[in-house]
Structure formats: structure tokens, C-alpha cells
Amino acid sequence: MDPRSLTPALRVLRLCLHLLTAGLLALVVVRALTGRTDEPAAAVVTAAAAMGAVYAAGPLIPAVRSTRLGAACWLAVLGAVWAVLLALSPDGLWLAFPLYFLLVHLLPARWGVPAVAVAAGAAIASYVGHGAPLNAGAFIGPLIGAAVAVATVLGYQALYRESESRRRLIDELIATRAELAAAERTAGTLAERERLAREIHDTLAQGLSSIQLLLRAAGRDLPAGSPAADHIEQARATAQDNLAEARRFVRALSPPDLDHGSLAGALERLCATAPGVSARFTTSGTPLALPTPYEVALLRIAQSALGNTVRHAHARRAEITLSFMETSVALDVVDDGDGFDPERAVTGDGVGSGDGGFGLPAMRARVRALGGTFTVESAPGQGTAVAVTLPLPAGGPA
């Protein structure tokens, strides 16, 4: 395991494991050198030193830290040296306890638990093989140590996984909150731009247009070339220039999708980029230049309706139709998805309540502000049809 990925608790446990192993190896060497056992001291010291060297080399080898195969190979070599030490000295069985932790920690549970059982059996066999008196402790001690090691390591791993899962969840929540905040700021900016565009169009632009018409009518009633007629013509020209400027403001505040083309082009691009659904755009009638508020409202309604189709309807196909008629313009968005109960969605009791009723109130408010009609036809399992009709303003777009 990469040391940089260790938690503080795991670093402490690893240090304790190193100290325990070093202490037990020292105990084996001291007992062999002081003659407290009947085993050959030189061979025991050599085997203990070899085991210490193999153990110390493990954390320094990158493959042991980063791969299961490298760890398994290192444990196999370490186990082989330990087996030699067991054969030489009964004191080697004490090293089974740190070895238990290594086996469970570095190997998958399906391999680590059987390996611990084998190590416990080898420790018991070594004790019996060296002629030590048989007693319950000779069997119970290694088995209890193995059980404690397995329970400790597996328990810690479970807690670590849960902690990591919570950390990832918190990171996702923080990222989601940041995305939502950014989306809200963007939505607020777009909404404010659209509001300003509507205000300029409905007040300033309309007022300047009326002033221009009145001045033009007044100019007709005055003799041509008179000072009053010249002043009125200058006032009318100024009103016309300011009206053009107001219209430029409205266009600048309109959605970016309308910056590089017509409403039809924006709707066609919307269908072409819709994810997960086959969307088609068609037009009918003779295309007309629409007022900017009309284009903004129709585009936003189409985006919202198609977005609902993608997110909620599980539809395979969708179609957006823009129809130009003599006195009105109509937008229809139809899909073959799951459908829903429009009444329950609006009241927040049914499908889509988590999304504000699929945005239906916002769509209806846009249409109502322009004096149009808005209808939704849908039923569970029967798809959805959203229809918008806006009356064309007299005298063309303003």
C-alpha cells in the first residue's frame, strides 16, 4: 500500500506491527544466543536475520505496495523463511501473530483467511514438533490470535470503506452544490436579461414607436419646409434612432442561441443536440420575422419541454413543430414517452413534482404574458403534447 494513501490510524497500526515483528525477532535471537533453547544458535540467528531482511525489504519494493501479486509473492517468501525458523526454534511461533495481520491485510479475504488458518496450523505443528508438552494453550493461543487478527483487520477495512464512501458522498454533495449554485446564477442572469429585454420592448421601444408614428402624422399636417415641420422631422428622426438603439439592446439581451440565426435555426440545433432521444424539427407556413420576446418565449418553452422529455419521459422520439399562420404563430412539442397527469403535475402531487411540475407553470406564465394560449395533453403511458399559440402583433414585429 502506498504510504501516502494511509490514514493516521493505519500509520500507527503499521508502526506497531513493525515494532512487534522486530521485538519478536530479537526475542528469538536472544533466547538462541543465551542458550535458553537446545536449537543451533547460529542457524536460528541466521534464519531470524533472513526473515528480518525479507520483512524490511517488503515496504521498499513498489510492486509490494501497489499490486496484489507483488504482495502475495513477498508474503510467500516471508512465509518460507518463517517456516525455516519454525523448524529451527519453537520461539518462531510467536511471529505468527504479526504474520496473521499481514496476510489478512495484504491479501483478498478469500485468500487471506485460509492463509491465516495455514499459518496457525504451522505454528501449532512447530510447537508440537519441538517436543513441548501438550496443553490446551498450545492450540487455543494461536487460534485465538488468528481470530483476533482476522476480526481486527476485516473490521477496520469495513470501517475504512464506509469512511471512504462517506467522503466520496460528501465530495459529490459539495460538487453538486457548487454546480447548482453556478446553474442558479446562470439561470438568474438569463432570467434578468430576459426580464430587461421584455421591459425595454414593452415600455421604451413601444413608446418610441408610438412617438415616431405621432410625429410622422403631425408632420403631414404642416407645410413642407416650415420651421415647425423641420423640428418635427428632427424629433421623428431622433425617436427612430433611439428606437433602433432600444431594439439593439433587446437583441443583445436575448438568449445566445438566437444570436447567430433565426428561431427556426435555434430550434433545429436544439433537436440536433438533444441527448438520448431522436428529435426532429419541422416548420409549416411562411416564416415571418417575430418580435424578440416571442422568439425568446418560444425557444425557452421548447427547451423546457424537450428537457422534460429527455429527463423524465423515457421517450424514443420527439418532434418540435413551428407553424406560421396569418394571425398567429404556434409551437408544438410532442413525444412518445411515459406521459403523466398534467393536473397532478401542476399541483405537485404527481409525476414531476420534484421538478416543479415539469416547469409547466413557468411555460404558462411566459405564454400568458404575451397574450397567448398554452395547453398540455398527456396521460400515463400515452406520451405528451405541449401546444403554444401566440397572436401576431399588428403591424409586424416591434
TrEMBL record:
Residues 298-394 form the Histidine kinase domain. It catalyses: ATP + protein L-histidine = ADP + protein N-phospho-L-histidine. Its EC number is 2.7.13.3. It comes from Streptomyces tabacisoli. It is found in: Cytoplasm. The chain crosses the membrane at residues 12-34, 40-57, 69-89, 109-129, 136-159. Member of the two-component regulatory system NreB/NreC involved in the control of dissimilatory nitrate/nitrite reduction in response to oxygen. NreB functions as a direct oxygen sensor histidine kinase which is autophosphorylated, in the absence of oxygen, probably at the conserved histidine residue, and transfers its phosphate group probably to a conserved aspartate residue of NreC. NreB/NreC activates the expression of the nitrate (narGHJI) and nitrite (nir) reductase operons, as well as the putative nitrate transporter gene narT. GO terms for cellular component: cytoplasm; membrane. It holds the Pfam family HATPase_c. Its main location: cytoplasm. InterPro entries: HATPase_C_sf, HATPase_dom, His_kinase_dom, Sensor_HK_TwoCompSys, Sig_transdc_His_kin-like_C, Sig_transdc_His_kin_sub3_dim/P, Sig_transdc_His_kinase_ChrS. One of its GO terms (molecular function) is metal ion binding. It is an enzyme of class 2 (transferase). SUPFAM superfamilies: ATPase domain of HSP90 chaperone/DNA topoisomerase II/histidine kinase. SMART domains: HATPase_c (SM00387). This is Oxygen sensor histidine kinase NreB. Keywords: 4Fe-4S, Cytoplasm, Iron, Iron-sulfur, Kinase, Membrane, Metal-binding, Transferase, Transmembrane, Transmembrane helix, Two-component regulatory system. Its cofactor is [4Fe-4S] cluster.
